[in-house]
Amino acid sequence: MEGFHDVRVCLFDDLVKDPLALVRSLYDFLSVDTSFAPDVSSSYNISGIPRSRLLNNFFIRKGRLQAAIRTVGTFILKDDNWIKLRESFRAKLLIKPGMKPETGKYMQSFYRKNIIMLQALINRDLKEWLED
After folding, report:
1. Taking Cα atoms as reference points, which of 129, 131, 113 lies closest to residue 121?
2. pTM to 2 decimal places
3. Which residue in 38, 60, 40 sits closest to 48, CA to CA?
C-alpha cells in the first residue's frame, strides 16, 4: 500500500460469481478499453483428485496415442475447441474433496482479525467469511 497510490483488491468469490464483471472492473481500474470481452466460458488447469488415474494420465501424458488423438481432434474441432473439449472432459473426471469442518472453523478463527481488516480496507462486508 505504501508503494502504490491506488490499489485494487479482487476476491476469488467475485471471479467465480461473475468473471466478466470482475474483468471489466479491472479494465476500468487500469483505464483500458472496457468493451473487450474475453472468453470466460472455459476453465483451465482445474485441480482435484482423479476418479481414474488411467484416464487422467491419458490427458496429461505426452505419448504417440495422445499426439495422434490431439492431431485428429484439432483437425476436426480446431485448436481452441479441442482444448475446451479436452479440459471439460478432464474436469468431469476430477473429484473436489471438501474441507473438513474443523479445519474451516480453525481457519475462520485464525484469520478473523485479517478478514475484519480486509473488510475495512476494501470497504466491503465479508461477514459470510466469518460465519459457519
Report:
1. 113
2. 0.66
3. 60
